[in-house]
């Protein structure tokens, strides 16, 4: 396969038998699904939509795209694709930092694990080869302890992506983290690795193995244009010019809070305010920068530097960690009624060390808090704003101690076990991120129709509703949001398959993506063909879910968003008009009440 950007080499590992073999990429699949997310979903589809997440048949795919680890700006991304133990859907979760670059420089386009080891193991990757090694001595270590142990053993220049104790104990929302504190956060990929007894993947790369574009001058022109767009001083929404570089993702806290679109106290309110006081300011990016910020690290080939390393030097919440992200600060702060800046930092560090998805974690804690408020527990509950109680509950959950054993199943499953499923702010079993669909209507249809459960990254509609990208829409207007969501889902499926950071979309559009893809691969796709690939990826995911049992009526929102009007400034009186948006969305997609018809499958050449 003579296509630039790929090594044309996939490593496959059967953890049951210990067999390792290598195979070229399926060229037809590459043309249809590009790589990373798209290609990973195609492999997982081949294993069968009815496999159980905790089974030898379920695949754990670590996949790169044609731009991953290249000179392309913001290309330090990889995708982990599997069947989720949290939702039962297909899931792809993405990791930044330098791991993707090191894996590409190690001569592979992806790693696919099947089976289950009889003992803890880890994978060592170098020069296009994979070796499986005994991990018994590192089983039980935290993520960062594992990173340190592997760097002592294999050298400081290796990248280590690892699960923590949460993955080992099959917490259904456990994740992978790497040495850069970058997480493949959502969907329970770490739990799948834990079940397979795969502790970590250690990668030694050689930059001389970085793929080179076939036409150097064509690539330089495309790359120069992309960089100029990202750095454009006249574009206030560009990731470099805008607040991402200055405040990180947490630049959103004050903005979304003031709009009445910040879910707080388990989404009972749409902003983190009490008696007219904006409590969200204490955990905002601006306040963090003014008080505890110590560094602005960056990922491979990224000029934005949105990561914010912080240090709390005194007090019982003393911690040095990276990064004080918007979603994490919201989930463990505003959503739990906790406005203690330092305690939230320590909670994020706990979650990262244990290997937990902070979004799901904050939701399961806030659901537990509201259930406690309703008087469901006697002596083992958790009250709003109890930071010390949160820290202790995070530990119990990680090790499945007492009530933690139930909470480890995730927000939806735990709420159902407690007899209060209505308190789970979840879709398809996955909890919502930091946007309330009563104040940002596009997020309502995006959550409901996300193929991996409630998610802001399938279609980041706030880009349009707040920043005017790709065009400006009213955050409190439902009309047009179905069509907008379909467009963004397809575009993001493309960027996830390249694999480049979604923040690139604050500046770049399909034109810039197309020029980089064609220059790196040597292909001659049109914009329409590229978007068709994104549409095909999204429809393949939906078809997988349909076959897995997610059919009519699977696109929904918690009743709270539909029937309890916002009482906060910016969105007061609003609910989310989901049914109206769904009608518009299904028409744009050509689906029948959430199910992909045979005609659409044939039109897109699926599978």
Which fold name is given in CATH as the topology of the domain at 10-209? Answer: Aldehyde Ferredoxin Oxidoreductase,  A, domain 1
Query: Which CATH top level class of the domain at 10-209 fits?
Result: Alpha Beta
By CATH, the superfamily of the domain at 10-209 comes out as Aldehyde ferredoxin oxidoreductase, N-terminal domain
Distance between the termini: 21 Å
The helical percent reads 25-40%
Main structural class:
alpha+beta
Number of strands: 19
Instruction: Kindly report the spatial arrangement of strands forming the biggest sheet.
Output: 2-1-6-3-4-5
Per DSSP, the total helix count is 24
CATH architecture of the domain at 10-209: 4-Layer Sandwich
User: Whole-number average pLDDT?
Assistant: 96
Secondary structure topology:
Blueprint: E1 10-14, E2 20-23, H1 27-33, H2 36-47, E3 60-63, E4 78-83, E5 90-95, H3 99-105, E6 110-114, E7 121-126, E8 129-134, H4 143-154, E9 159-162, H5 165-168, E10 176-178, E11 183-184, H6 189-196, E12 198-204, H7 216-231, H8 243-247, H9 252-259, E13 273-274, E14 277-278, H10 285-291, E15 293-295, E16 309-312, E17 319-322, H11 326-332, H12 341-354, H13 358-373, H14 387-399, H15 404-407, H16 411-418, E18 426-427, E19 430-431, H17 441-449, H18 462-467, H19 481-498, H20 510-521, H21 527-547, H22 559-563, H23 578-589, H24 598-604
Parallel strand pairs: 1-6, 7-12
Antiparallel strand pairs: 1-2, 3-4, 3-6, 4-5, 7-8, 9-10, 9-12, 10-11, 13-14, 15-16, 16-17, 18-19
Helix pairs in contact: 1-2, 2-19, 2-21, 7-20, 11-13, 12-14, 13-16, 17-19, 17-23, 19-21, 19-23
């Amino acid at each position: 396969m003579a296509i630039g950007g790929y090594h044309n080499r996939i490593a496959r590992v059967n953890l049951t038998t210990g067999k390792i073999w290598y195979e070229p990429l399926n060229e037809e699949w590459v043309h249809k699904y590009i790589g990373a997310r798209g290609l990973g979903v195609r492999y997982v589809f081949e294993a069968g939509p009815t496999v159980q997440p905790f089974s030898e048949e379920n695949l754990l795919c670590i996949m790169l795209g044609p731009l991953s680890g290249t000179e392309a700006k913001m290309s330090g991304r990889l995708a982990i694709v599997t069947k989720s133990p949290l939702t039962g859907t297909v899931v792809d979760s993405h990791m930044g930092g330098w791991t993707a670059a090191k894996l590409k420089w190690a001569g592979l386009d992806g790693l696919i694990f099947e089976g289950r080891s009889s003992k803890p193991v880890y994978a060592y990757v170098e020069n296009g080869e994979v070796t499986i090694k005994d991990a018994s001595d590192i089983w039980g270590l935290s993520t960062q302890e594992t990173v340190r142990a592997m760097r002592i053993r294999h050298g400081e220049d290796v990248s280590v992506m690892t699960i923590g104790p949460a993955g080992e104990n099959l917490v259904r929302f456990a994740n992978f983290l790497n040495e850069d504190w970058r997480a493949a956060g959502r969907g329970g990929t770490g739990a799948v690795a834990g079940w397979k007894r795969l502790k970590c993947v250690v990668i030694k790369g050689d930059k001389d193995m970085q793929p080179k574009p076939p036409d150097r001058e064509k690539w330089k022109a495309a790359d120069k244009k992309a960089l100029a767009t990202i750095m454009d001083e006249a574009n206030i929404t560009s990731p470099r010019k805008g607040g991402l570089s200055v405040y990180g993702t947490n630049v959103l806290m004050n903005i979304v809070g003031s709009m009445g679109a910040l879910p707080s106290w388990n989404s009972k309110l749409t902003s983190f305010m009490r008696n007219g006081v904006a409590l969200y300011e204490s955990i905002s990016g601006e306040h963090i920068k003014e008080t505890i910020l110590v560094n602005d690290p960056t990922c491979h080939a990224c000029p934005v530097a949105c990561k914010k390393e912080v240090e709390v030097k005194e007090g019982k919440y003393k911690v040095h960690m990276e990064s004080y992200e918007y979603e994490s600060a919201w989930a463990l702060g505003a959503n739990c009624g906790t406005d203690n800046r330092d305690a939230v930092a320590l909670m994020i560090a706990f979650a990262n060390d244990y290997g937990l998805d902070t979004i799901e974690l904050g939701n399961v804690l806030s659901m537990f808090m509201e259930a406690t408020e309703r008087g469901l527990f006697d002596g083992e509950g958790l009250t709003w704003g109890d930071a010390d109680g949160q820290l202790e509950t995070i530990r119990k959950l990680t090790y499945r101690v007492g009530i933690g054993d139930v909470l480890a199943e995730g927000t939806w499953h735990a709420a159902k076990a407690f007899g209060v499923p209505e308190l789970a702010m979840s879709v398809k079993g996955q909890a919502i991120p930091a946007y309330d669909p009563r104040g940002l209507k596009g997020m309502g249809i995006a959550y409901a129709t996300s193929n991996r459960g409630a998610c802001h990254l399938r279609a980041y509609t706030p880009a349009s509703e707040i920043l005017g990208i790709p065009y400006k829409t009213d955050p409190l207007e439902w009309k047009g949001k179905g069509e907008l969501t379909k467009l963004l889902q397809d575009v993001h499926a493309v960027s996830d398959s390249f694999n480049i950071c979604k923040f690139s979309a604050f500046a770049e559009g399909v034109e810039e993506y197309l020029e980089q893809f064609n220059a790196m691969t040597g292909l001659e796709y049109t914009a329409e063909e590229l978007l068709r690939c994104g549409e095909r990826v999204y429809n393949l995911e939906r078809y997988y879910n349909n076959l897995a049992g997610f059919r009519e009526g699977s696109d929904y929102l918690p009743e709270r968003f539909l029937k309890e009007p916002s009482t906060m400034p910016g969105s007061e009186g609003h609910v989310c008009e989901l049914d109206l948006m769904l009608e518009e969305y299904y028409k744009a997609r050509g689906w029948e009440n959430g199910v992909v018809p045979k005609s659409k499958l044939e039109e897109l050449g699926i599978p």
